[in-house]
Design brief:
The protein is α+β, with helices and mostly antiparallel strands. It has nine helices and seven strands. The strands form three sheets. Strands 5-6-7 form a three-stranded mixed beta sheet. Strand 6 and strand 7 form a beta hairpin. It is globular and about 50 Å long. The N and C termini lie far apart (44 Å).
Length: 254
Amino acid sequence: MDKLEEHKIATWRDVLKVKQRPLVFTHPDASLFEAVRMLIQEKIHRLPVLDKTTGNVIYILTHKRILKFLSLLKTEIKRPALLKKSIKDLGIGTYSNIATARKDTPLITALNTFVERRVSALPVVDENNRIVDIYAKFDVINLAAEKTYNNLDVTIEQALKHRETYFEGVAKCKANESLETIIEKIIKAEVHRLIIVDNEDHLVGVVSLSDLLNHLVLKPAGVPSRNPSGSSSVTGPDSTVSSPTLNMSPTQLP
């Protein structure tokens, strides 16, 4: 691989144009519900809000920002009683076919898994399936920062030694904890997902921001979590929802 710092964005666009997806965006007058639908159905983490006149990005919406906002207004969300139920009883999260890695997994294998499985993080487990760490797409940025991207045969354990930001440990939860508790935990930890474990830290599942927003917003409205058309869309009619909060525009978020 040539030196990354000598590459231009245009070069990568040419290389990746076969797999390039249409830009998914929304406008300031779209509803918050529509923004949530697009984030989840298009499987994106950030949704640009473009000015209709200039086409400039005026705001970027994320799962985290929306969930934090909704948590402040949980009494207005349809069926608030579900917040007291456990995520296990509600069926929230992924509990099978979870993409994982070991400390000795080659970094190139982890990168390929990110692309092939379309996941943003890999729980790192030991030989007994206990959680010991997590390797996320964000950690890949450190490869460029440390200029170690030419050696992709290093193990995940070696790669994680280049983690620049302070790491407080894997954010975990239990399947029998309430939805309300899970929301509070994921917001406080400021992460994109919580690793579900048992009492001995064995991997049980993963619950993400998308899982939570899907259950809180789309599912009560009868909207599927996958794009029915199977292709990206940038506009679409608002679905009818019971909460006026979700009919707010993205730019009205506090």
